[in-house]
Amino acid sequence: MTPTQARSAGASQPAPPQKLVVIGAGMASGRLLEELAKLAPEKYEVTLFGAEKWGNYNRIMLSPVLSGEKQFDEIITHDADWYAAQGINCRFGETIVKIDRKTKRVISNRGATHYDKLVIATGSASFFIPVAGNDLPGVVGFRDHDDVERMLEAAQKPDGKAVVIGGGLLGLEAAAALHARGMKVTVLHLMGHLMERQLDPTAGYLLKKELEGRGIRVVCNAHTNAIVGDGKAEAVLLEDNATHEADLVVMAVGIRPETRLGVDSGLETNRGIVVDDHMRTSDPDIMAIGECVEHNETVFGLVAPLYDMAKVAAKQLAGPSEAGFSYGETPTKLKVTGINLYSVGDFSDGPDREEIVLRDATKGMYKRVVLRDNRIVGAVLYGDVSDGPWYYDMIQQSTDVSEMRETLIFGQAHQGGGGFDPIEAVAALSDDAEICGCNGVCKGDIVAAIGAHDLTTLDEVRAHTKASASCGNCTGLVENLMAATLGDAFSANAVKSMCGCTELTHGDVRRLIKAKELKSIPAVMQELEWSTSGGCAKCRPALNYYLLADWPGEYVDDQQSRFINERVHANIQKDGTYSVIPRMWGGMTNAAELRAIADVVDKFEIPTVHVTGGQRIDLLGVKKEDLPAVWSDLNDAGMVSGHAYAKGLRTVKTCVGKDWCRFGTQDSTGLGVRLEKFLWGSWAPHKIKLAVTGCPRNCAEATCKDIGVICVDSGYEIHYAGAAGLHIQGTTKLTTVATEDEVMEIAAAIVQMYREQGHYLERIYKWAERIGHDTVRAAILDDPEGRRAYYDRFVFSQQFAQTDPWSERVSGVDKHEFKPMATLELEPAE
Amino acid sequence: MNAMTNIWTPVGQLSDIPRQGARCVRHGDTKIAVFRTSDDRVFALEDQCPHKNGPLSQGIVHDRGVTCPLHNWVISLETGTAMGADEGETRTYPVKVEGDTIMVAL
């Protein structure tokens, strides 16, 4: 419409009242009628249909009603008196079953009503996940007054148990409220972290920690399989067979726009009833607003855009209007007393994005502001949300923040403050000021040691003074002191940090994971104040390993933080195919295995077969889709994964020993097989290769391995820390023992010590060089109890690691890895 | 030749792809890698690193990039260009998610 037309139409005389019918008496229609009453009170004769028994109430305040912080009466926004005062004919409790667009009538169970203009505001319904038992009594949504009533009834039962399915905004509010009502509450959430639409993983982790601290159980990655019970809900079963008892099951996984009337009457409908910028449906006399609509391929669940729709629709109804609906970012706050959480805008990462992160682990505080072109596009705040509105305002105003970048993250109160130089601050301390509380080291001690021993690195200062060598919290202080003492001679980065996401070194991170009992990647990133929100391809695999090594049986391996070879248990080749290497224990094989390998090569047309330096057979050029079938055939012949891709035990190379060789002194093959069968499985910082050779002629080349055993007449020489790759280095001899059992114990103890102390991608020789051979000898040889403890911890870890990954995948684990998501046929060109 | 009009083609469900993971779609002779980030954004690239044709779908997905499994080039999921000091570009495809269904413009 042109402006001229708009003006002339707006100036026309008031017509006799038209008939306006509104279907749905929820928040959107409440706001619409309010606006319309202001703009054009005389223009329409309004009839309002609502399926519930009362008028509009503030649905988002149902959580406080559920928790007992409010009464239902308090949240009713439009009562019968208000509608009466506006002259609105209310037909509550009456359901519209059909819209007849030809005759312009809506049909209810009590008859037909004519309309000139119709507004559909039917809202949405709780989405019930399609599992068996979702219709049992005791399974409720969290949507309306009746749902709350049903939940309150269930909460009457002493020690009642509630399971909330869905860890989004609504689910968590329901969980907190039911917990406040005295129920034992478990939240089952499909995703890896809570409220994934509003929060990044770190904030999700903090929220989970807080809820668990309150006594609410939270299970992430929970795939619901069924709800079971005899005549009513009694338990929720997960796909991993975990069972959660429940007297009440709350479905809070999402909402489904209520589009039935639109669909039945032939209006254009996708996920919601499709509307244009003026809230008009495909029928010019029918408008739709609220959660039932779809605008620009988006559906809506938060209240702010619904109110905007209502205003636009009211203007349209009042007279021609050019006001169109558009929506900006809506901030989200969780309405749970005592939890401060705020998110707004787009806080995802991207190459054109920059982020500023502030973490305060002790206060449990996390702030993240995402910038694009020096403008804030999103923010996530946890703990301290006081600056949320300030950031939101700057998002809306598109404020250029380049002037205040340095202090932006500290909030509005810190703008324009003075500078602070931490190095000057530490230089100003007195000599007897304590720097390291754990080890009682004063500033004077450190300065003196630096001077006396020409120390230039943090590790050296730690070695000489023990400052920051325990919990590590004073590392920054020690570094600043070194900078103040050494000036330019000191560079804090002399010991390289793990990656660009943190200032901490691998050693720091390993120590702190144990000291602070950090048990997940988000926990490490939050508590150790990572500067990025989600890490990078360098730190994530390292953290995944450290957590796996430090918390065996507890930490769940994060597949997406693994390199492809470890994810699919094969080695990627330059053309994208894979190589497959089955184990040949100690380099031994037989006719049946060789025959099976030959059959697999023929069956899958494997182009290359190669004998490796680790005494086994490599099948090269296997297509990824074929991997499970190849493994299945090899498994059938008794062969398992050779872990040729693993940071862990690869091979134990042997010679034939005294069984055959005229020089052989011991059963080197037997010992090699025994070592390989004992050591395979657990992940390590890097690959581990062993060899057992039957005599000092060393045919198995044991003296360039991570651990090498040389059999001699009197027993077994144990060597370690050799290398034969980029770097060539002979092994260092540890000791000679008399029995195979002693070899087993020492080898396992070394591997475990390395697993606990090694930095990710650091081979055993590098690790030994770093900590010193004397340290290794002292731990492994001079301290039998300590050695035994290492051995025991290794054995413990192995019980979670010694599962053949091939047979697991043959039986269906990670099947998404091995086949394309879709295969699309191309239409022939014409 | 056919007109190069893009047709939104459903290729699977969002839940088919693990977070910070990828799946392949075969489209005739072309392999397309469809990525899902930790915040559920979905991107599609030709499954070929501009460096040595490494299968990007097999890489580690982080932020808005994927690290190629062959030589650790990092390719932007949004633009298909190599990040950092490397230079090169991989073809991108428009993607949208409707409900749980992933649609790629082919």
Task: Outline the structure in words.
- The complex is a heterodimer of chains A (830) and B (106).
- Chain A is built from 28 helices and 40 strands.
- Chain A is of the alpha/beta class and 830 residues long.
- In chain A, the strands form eleven sheets. A five-stranded parallel sheet of chain A has the order 3-2-1-7-19.
- In chain A, helix 14 crosses helix 16 and helix 24 packs across helix 27.
- Chain A is globular, with a radius of gyration of 34 Å.
- With 106 residues, chain B is mainly β.
- In chain B, strand 6 and strand 7 form a beta hairpin.
- Chain B is globular, with a radius of gyration of 13 Å.
- The chains are: A alpha/beta (830), B mainly beta (106).
How would you summarize this macromolecular structure in one to three sentences?
The complex is a heterodimer of chains A (830) and B (106). Chain A is of the alpha/beta class and 830 residues long.
Secondary structure topology:
The complex is a heterodimer of chains A (830) and B (106).
Chain A: H1 3-10, E1 18-23, H2 27-39, E2 44-50, H3 62-67, H4 72-75, H5 80-85, E3 89-92, E4 96-100, E5 105-108, E6 111-114, E7 117-120, E8 124-126, E9 139-140, H6 145-155, E10 161-165, H7 169-180, E11 184-188, H8 201-214, E12 217-219, E13 224-228, E14 235-238, E15 243-245, E16 248-251, E17 255-257, H9 260-264, E18 273-275, E19 286-288, E20 293-295, E21 298-299, H10 303-318, E22 332-333, E23 341-345, E24 353-360, E25 365-372, E26 375-382, H11 388-397, H12 405-408, H13 422-427, E27 434-436, E28 441-442, H14 443-453, H15 458-465, H16 475-486, H17 506-515, H18 521-527, H19 539-550, H20 564-568, E29 571-572, E30 578-580, H21 591-603, E31 608-611, E32 617-622, H22 627-636, E33 649-654, H23 668-679, E34 688-693, E35 707-712, E36 715-720, E37 723-724, E38 728-729, E39 732-737, H24 740-757, H25 764-771, H26 773-780, H27 784-798, H28 805-810, E40 822-824
Parallel strand pairs in A: 1-2, 1-7, 2-3, 7-19, 9-16, 10-11, 10-16, 11-12, 18-20, 33-34, 34-35
Antiparallel strand pairs in A: 4-5, 5-6, 8-17, 13-14, 14-15, 20-21, 22-23, 23-26, 24-25, 25-26, 27-28, 29-30, 30-32, 31-32, 35-36, 36-39, 37-38
Chain B: E1 8-13, E2 21-27, E3 30-36, E4 42-46, E5 60-62, E6 65-67, E7 74-76, E8 92-93, E9 95-98, E10 101-105
Antiparallel strand pairs in B: 1-10, 2-3, 3-4, 4-8, 5-6, 6-7, 9-10
